From TrEMBL:
Topology term for the membrane: Multi-pass membrane protein
Molecular function as annotated in GO: ABC-type transporter activity; ATP binding
Entry keyword Cytoplasm: no
Transmembrane regions: 44-61, 67-87, 146-172, 184-202
Key words, A-Z: Membrane, Transmembrane, Transmembrane helix
Organism, as annotated: Caenorhabditis sinica
Protein name, UniProt field: PGP-14
Length: 264
């Protein structure tokens, strides 16, 4: 918020940085980040530690099963990374096109004027149209999250089928004893359970990643005019003449703020 106060005027002239959108970002991004910095973060760390431990145990007892199980986990990881990237792109696009929050804030700020002009229905229609657009975007994200949930929650059964298939072959050929083979299979299945337990927080982490990126963009953005608290303060002497000065903001070049200014 402090950094926003020091931004140049052209920053706020950009429709993407309308006051309503900035207020929505400040009000929603921080809670989205906070939502994962709690017990859910610990659950994910525990799950990652369990996966690493299970892979090590599986390699100790039956490397054939361990290689297959590790390959399945890596394949699932690549699928989740791809889905996360897709959802992040959709989140950023949704934030750029989010008009519902801006419209709601501006309507509430000017509600008395709207009531006096009897234009409540018109502004409600604007808000309803913007909300429906956001709803369609959320439904698209919901489909991707549903695909991720179905894959991760059924991952243990895929792991069971493939590891038992390989384990039976290993026992039949006599490469490993049945005791060591089953220890390796059980270790990989426990790793799959850890994946299932941590994957349920996938939507929150993707949302937090997007929110963190937006917040840090605001925090580290430097004004085009420079920092107001720094810079040179040279001593200026002489005469200054303004002759036929014209000025307009970059985002609205056809709407001059000053025109034909004469000043000495």
């Amino acid at each position: 918020f402090r950094n926003l106060l020091y931004q140049d005027a052209s920053y706020f002239d950009n429709p993407a940085h309308a006051p309503g959108k900035l207020i929505t970002r400040l009000a929603s991004d921080a809670p989205n980040i906070k939502a994962v910095v709690d017990a859910r973060m610990l659950q994910v760390i525990y799950a990652l530690s369990a996966i690493v431990a299970c892979i090590v145990i599986a390699f100790i007892y039956c490397w054939q099963v361990a290689i297959l199980g590790t390959s399945l986990i890596l394949l699932l990881a690549f699928v989740m990374i791809g889905l996360a990237y897709k959802i992040s792109v959709m989140n950023i696009e949704q934030i750029k096109n989010d008009e519902a929050g801006r419209i709601a804030i501006e309507i509430i700020e000017n509600v008395k004027t709207i009531q006096l002009l009897t234009r409540c229905d018109m502004f409600f229609d604007h808000y309803e149209t913007a909300s429906k657009q956001q709803k369609r975007s959320e439904l698209k994200k919901g489909m991707i999250e549903a695909i991720n949930y179905s894959i991760t929650q059924s991952f243990m059964y895929f792991m069971m089928c493939f590891t038992y298939a390989v384990g039976i072959r290993v026992i039949y050929q006599g490469d490993k004893s049945s005791d060591d083979t089953f220890k390796g299979i059980i270790a990989m299945m426990l790793g799959a359970v850890a994946v299932m337990n941590s994957a349920q927080y996938f939507p929150e982490f993707v949302k937090a990643k997007t929110a963190a990126g937006m917040l840090f963009n605001i925090i580290y953005r430097k004004p085009r005019t420079g920092d107001l608290m720094e810079g040179d303060r040279p001593e200026i002497r002489g005469n200054i003449l303004f002759e036929n000065v014209k000025f307009s903001y970059p985002q609205r070049p056809l709407q001059p703020i000053m025109k034909g200014l004469q000043w000495t």
